[in-house]
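Input.
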Amino acid sequence: MENGNGKKVTIDQVAAACGVSKTTVSRYLNHHYENISEETRGRIERVIAELGFRPNRTAQRLKASRSLLIGCCIGDLNSPFSGLLLRGITRVCEAANYQVLFADSGEDPRKERHAIQGFLENAVDGLIVNTTGENDAYLLEVAAQGVPVTLADRSLLCGQGLDEAINDYERCTYEAVRLLFSRGYTRLAFFTELPRNVTPRIQRREGFLRAIRLLAPADTDGSVYEFDRYVPGACRECLERFQAAFPGERLAILAVNGATGRQLVMTMKEMGLTAGEDLGLCTFDDWDIFSLADVTAIRLQTEEVGAAAAQMLLERISGSVPATQPGRSRQLASELVVRKSTG
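Output.
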């Protein structure tokens, strides 16, 4: 990269500006962080950005025997959730001079597997997967062949075996259910997309039912309504069934994710229902639409989950976390943001 005088910025200039050796900068660029303090890493990162330094990728690849590429497969790129996740992944990877190849599985396990195979053919150094939940055995097989794999937001159904960065759903689900009961709602329902094998949907549903058992009166059960959000009228049909099942009671809904919550907001508007008056509403994912519609939401650390997944993967690639170490789980806390939709 050239500076303002038209000359290329060198690694020696970066080292001099940081007050460290060229070897230290080189080790930083190759992700060998184990003997570099956090303060020094931050200083090197700032100087690189200020000087506009870009390492010679070809030379780096030849020297390190790495492609400096990471493959990232996401479940649904149309979702605002995915945009936040990718922002965190990209931020960390680009700071470490890695390029990220993206693919959208569209929640199709065949597309997911095909995308991963394509990444491997391009000799990526590692994989970040927001998995469909249908390829556990394949992902474990890829990892067993020496390719680092980190899961972003979604775990393996078969249990721990790979590094994962996820949101902690247990506490915030409990808090949401407790809030709804404290506001005088007598019947609660969990509205969800078809769960398939997507672990957050399964975990949130189980957390809801556990909270109901702990907090609801003895004769009160939690209702669960599953629907395909791509089928017109499916959400409305579930909402009407919920209302018909408990006439005269104060009803409230916890939506499994932002896509379901958004559909509930639109369906309630079509039906002439006001959240917080006719029906209580709380959703996972605090997207802009929920702030505008005054909907209580569970704010997930989606971008930070992506960043954590990328950092965990880079630690495996660099060898600072050895391949023999068992899979790690990094859980990020969520926050309940209370608005008018819960009364």
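Residues 63-166+302-332 form a domain with the Rossmann fold fold (CATH 3.40.50.2300).
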